[in-house]
Each structure stands twice: as C-alpha cells, then as structure tokens.
Amino acid sequence: METKVFFNSDGIRIAGVLYEPEAADNSSCPGIILCQGMVGVKEYFWFPHLARRFVELGCVALIWDYRGVGESEGEPGKLYPQEQAEDIRNGLTFLETNRKVDPERLGLLGFSFGAGMVPYVAGVDERVKCAISVAGWGDGERWMQSIRRYYEWLELLHQIEDDRKTRIETGKSDLMGPGAILVGDPATSAARKKVMDQIPEMENYISTDYSLATAEKLLEFKPIDVVDRISPRAIMYIAAELDTVTPAEGVIDMYEETFEPKKLWVIPGAAHYDVYREDLKEKIWEMSVEWFKQHLPMD
User: Fold this and answer.
1) pLDDT interval class at 213 (50, 70, 90)
2) Phi, psi for residue 89 in degrees, rounded to 5
3) Phi, psi at residue 106, to the nearest 5°?
4) How many Cα atoms occupy the beta-carbon half-sphere of 13 within 13 Å?
5) Measured between alpha carbons, how far is 63 from 144 in angstroms, rounded to an integer?
6) Which of the residues 15, 53, 56, 254 has the least number of beta carbons within 10 Å of its own beta carbon?
7) How far is it, in rounded angstroms, from Cα 89 to Cα 59?
8) What is the mean pLDDT of the segment spanning 138-153?
9) pLDDT tens-digit profile of 122-135?
10) Nearest residue to 122 via CA among 43, 47, 232, 266
11) H runs (alpha helix) in 128-277
C-alpha cells in the first residue's frame, strides 16, 4: 500500500510517500526512513523501488522531499543540515504514530548527502536502533575542501564571506548552480548520467540549486563529532574506494570514531555514483537487509 502523506517539521509541511504492508498487526513492523542525496527528490535514485522492497520484508518505509524541493514546503535553495536533521527526527515521530510500526524498531538508510545525515541523527536520537550510511561524509568542512583544488577552496570561502555581507543587506543568498557544491573530477558528470539513464523514474531528472548560505552551513556540520554516541545501537558504513564526491577517507575516519556494533565496507574500484548501479545496488541491498535483520530486527 502506497499513500501520499505530509508531516509538519518546524511548521513546514514535508511531503512524502508511505509504503506499508496491506495487513499487519499493531506494532508489528519496523519503520525505515530513507534519506536522499543532495538533490532531495523522493522519487529519484531507486528510492520508491527500495521502499517497496522493505514492505516485502514486513516493514513500513517512508520516502520524502527535502524542504523547498518537490512537493514539500520551504525556501528553495536552502539545505541547512541542522534543519534537515530535525526533518528526519520529525519523520521518526511520524512513523511512531503509525499503528503498524513498532516504535522500538526504527531505522535509517541514507545515500550521499543523506548518508551524512544518518550518522548524525543516529548519534543524537536514541530512537534510531539501526542505521546504514552509503557513500556519506563525516565532516562538512573537510568534505567541502577535499573535493576542491586549493584555489577553488579559497574562492568558495571568499564567495561565502561576500554572500554573508550581502545577506545582511538583502536577506537573500545567491544560488549555486548544479555541481557548484559537489564539485569533482570531470568524469563524475558522465558517470552520473550513465548510471541515471538506467534508473526508473528519473527520465525527467532535474538538479537542485542550493545557496551559498547552504555551503556555509555545510562547513559547520560535523557528524563525526557525535558518532561515538550511537553505541550500543548499530550502524553500517558503506563507502566507494574511488569516490571523488564524498571521499571514502572521511567515511573511514567516521567509522573509526564509532563504537561497536559497527561495520565498514569500502567497495573496491567504485566511484560515487556506482552505488546506484544495478549490480552494486543489489549487493548493497543484500548487506543492508542482513544488517537490519541482525540489529533491528525484522521478522
């Protein structure tokens, strides 16, 4: 059963799709929130497909549009991580109100940008009993600097400083075009398109622009500082060895700061968008199901 839903987060109406088993006893299902990459659109990157597969396992799953994106309310171009964390936590509360969901079995699965939010929320919200982070990041400043050449890094800092002064006068922040935040080697765009062409529901893919104020907030956000609080709850990190968008080194460092139970898989020879390839998606799915069954658990 698939239902369009809305929940409120800090007074903002967040749009989602809820996936449920047709028949289930009260409090019998784990609840899973899926957290998108930076594009923030719930239908992209296999998310409806993954949610339906969770239902087949007896789970209730939620996919949702980021603030200011898709069908959600909010200011376009504004993606502040702390606000994003609140949206995820309010999503957890929304799942708790579903009669089929067992509030003691809530989990998170995130990719790319969402895979940075997952360890943060798991660290600050004990309702998250099991989490999976795929191709994520642990330190916003380190992440943003690591994917830039030094002169590009200095230019970004200069742009942020100028934009901060402009915001004082106008109340608005300049938008950065696609790729301006997630810069990387030129092969990234071609690889992304090749993968996306194989994914259902992405025929009309549109990138999302974000503001320089967003870039500034990303620099300040450091999930690595709270991952030591996840234990005794469980988290698995998956990274791509050749990732130039969210480099694997940041994920490995986050894993090392996390206590047991934890797991790390660095996919040999894989780049960032390879995690959405059909073959790797299946391997990631198999590992995710095994992890959730072990730590959530699933019936």
Assistant:
1) very high
2) -65, -35
3) -105, 135
4) 8
5) 26
6) 56
7) 18
8) 94
9) 999 999 999 999 99
10) 232
11) 140-146, 150-170, 187-196, 212-220, 248-257
Give the dihedral sign, CA 125/127/130/135: negative
Residue among 200, 218, 211 nearest 82 (CA)? 218
d(Cα 268, Cα 254) in Å, to the nearest integer?
19
- Provide φ and ψ at 101, rounded to 5°: -85, 135
Q: Phi and psi at residue 10, in whole multiples of 5°? A: 55, 35
pLDDT score of 92:
98
**Dist. CA 238–CA 224, nearest whole Å:** 15
Pairwise CA distance, residues 38 & 252, whole Å: 21
Q: Structural domains in the chain?
A: 2-295 (3.40.50.1820)
For the beta sheet containing 29-35, the strands, ordered from the edge strand earlier in sequence to the opposite edge, are: 2-9, 12-19, 60-64, 29-35, 101-111, 128-134, 234-240, 262-267
Average pLDDT, the chain: 94
How many Å apart are CA 254 and CA 201, to the nearest integer?
33
Q: Name residue 4's beta-bridge partners.
A: 17
Does the pTM surpass 0.85? The reply is yes
Give the three-state DSSP class for 26. Answer: coil
Q: State yes or no: cis peptide before 297, omega within 30 of 0.
A: yes
Q: What confidence tens digit (pLDDT) does each residue in 156-204 have? A: 999 999 999 999 999 999 998 767 777 766 666 777 778 888 888 888 8
Q: Which of 30, 23, 182 is nearest to 103 (CA)?
A: 30
Secondary structure letter of residue 23 according to DSSP: S
